[in-house]
Amino acid sequence: MSKDNSRLIKTICISGSSAVISYLINFFLTSFISENVGIEAYSFVSIAKTAVSYAQIITVALTTFIVRYISINYHQKQMEKARAYYSSSIVACVLLSGGIYLVILALLPRLEYIINIPDNLIYPVKILFLLVFFNFILTTLITPLNSGAFIKNRLDISGILKIISYLTDAGVLILVFSIATPSIWVVGLGSVTASLVLATGTFIMKQKLVPELKFEKKLVSFRCVKDMMSNGIWQSVNSLGNVLNSGLDLIVSNLMLSGTETGQIAVVKTIGTMFSMLYQVVNQPFQPKMLKVYSTGDKKAFFKELTKTMKMCGFFSNVAFAGFVALGWAYFKLWLPSQNTDVLYVLGVITVFGSITEGVAQPLYYVNTLTLKKKIPCFVTVGSGLLNTLSMYLLLKYTDWGVYVIVLTTAVIMTCVNFFFNPIYCAKCLRLHPLSLYPVIGRHILSVVIMIGIFKAMTLAYMPSSWITLIAYAMLMCVAGFFVHVIVMTNMSEKHRIKAKIVKMINKNAK
Question: What does the pLDDT look like over 240-270, one tens digit per residue?
Fold first, then answer.
């Protein structure tokens, strides 16, 4: 196995482990708060995090292209320019995130007049918001430091640092909840502590990997910030569209539905968050290689790298979605036995339905970043977001579909965008035939349909009734899904190569 492939697998495994730890924290945290404080209280944890996504609409204009500009100049041996972008981005991140935090401090005293907060939760919610937004500042400041991991293709180290930070988060939550009365503000405290650990580790990593990349006050340049933000402004517009598509779910629920229904939406959105994290776990390790290949200008090699990433992301999203369709009801029954399992299951399936197209299309988003072609995707995202918000409001007002509307409109619209627009526009950016990516997408959809059929047949024969049997079923489905995906997604020569690698691995372990 080549060094690049070995590191890629290592990075995916480490990033996957960090995602599992993050999932377990959310898993136990959601259950603990819902059962001990109430599902309505848990909704404010998600609302606070959603509010951060609104602030990120501003900062993402800067942070999206920081790593790209630093890394490309580094690879092209233009070290002074790389240091100029690095130094300028640090100053810009401090000023931008600090300004946003001052605005939050001004709004916080009247928070109960902005969103509906029960009287007994006003002060815990305000403290939660204060901590969550401070955590937002920390994560923004880390962005320039991540350039070291991208430049040296050592996202495996970043994954290890994330694992340490998640364990820190868990440790803080366990300690405080064991000695104090359960309250939702503790969630923010855990996040802040974890981010402090992550920031420290990321700085040390940057110093070790690229010590020549230093902050130099004399190199701080408004032109560098302008370069990054002039392209990044379209990412801000895109983020606004994403907020309209899914970031308003909890706010609309808070204002138009009951507290219990808002809590149900908050719970199922944790599943959607885990799916999104899964895409990042698989997709991000490929990005340094994609960036490096793109820098060479070899279009054929880049297309090969892109389709390989699509197939990998597609496998994980397909197994996750088909597995959730088959096991989701048992999952909710075991996880939150006091809640309405049927409603949570239907909401959950609708929430992650978009993963059918989003998983395989995830690498295409990075192509827009590399090619600096963000304008049209942003208009499409904002347009779809406005349509989503309007549809959500009208359906809530004039139908009796209730809580299902919140997730249904997003699922339908985003599925259409990822299937009809993103592949064609990505091909246009790469100057390829408009339908060049659809063979991969078509096979991907066939793969998930077959998986759903097989997995549902398994649960019809026996529905897991304990965590042990559910985990065992999930593992069997992963194995079955792997063979289905390989058979459907690969050509004959690729099948022979995979078979040879598996045989070689088995023979090596047998010795």
Answer: 776 666 656 667 767 777 767 777 887 888 7
The label of the residue with tokens 């899914």 reads 246
- Cα 313 to chain centroid, rounded: 13
Residue 312 has pLDDT above 90, yes or no: no
pLDDT confidence bin for 4, thresholds 50/70/90 = low
| Of 47, 50, 43, the residue nearest 267 (C-alpha) | 43
Tokens of 45: 């944890």
CB 367 within 8 A of CB 306: yes
Identify the burial level of 307 via C-beta atoms within 10 angstroms of its C-beta, where 0-12 means exposed, 13-18 middle and 19 or more buried: middle
Considering 3-17, 59-73, 206-220, the range whose residues carry the highest mean pLDDT is: 206-220
For residue 25, what are the contacts with CB-CB under 8 A and spacing of at least 6? 166, 169, 170, 173
Go through 140-170 and write b for each residue having 16 or more CB atoms within 10 A of its CB, e for each that does not.
Answer: bbbbbbbbbbbbbbbbbbbbbbbbbbbebbb
Specify whether the CB–CB gap between 194 and 172 falls below 8 A. yes
- Say which amino acid occupies 407: V
Structure tokens at 297: 């200008």
Backbone angles phi, psi at 116, to 5 degrees: -80, 115
Structure tokens at 30: 């959601």
Task: Give dist(CA 195, CA 200) in Å, integer.
Answer: 8
- Burial degree of 189 (CB within 10 A; 0-12, 13-18, 19+): buried
The pLDDT confidence band at residue 55, using thresholds 50, 70 and 90, is: confident
Residues in contact with 263: Cβ distance below 8 Å, sequence separation at least 6, in sequence order: 34, 38, 39, 40, 41, 42, 43
Among the listed residues 93, 75, 67, the one whose alpha carbon sits nearest the alpha carbon of residue 220:
93
By residue count, the chain amounts to 511
> Pick from 458, 476, 474: which is nearest to 466 by CA?
474
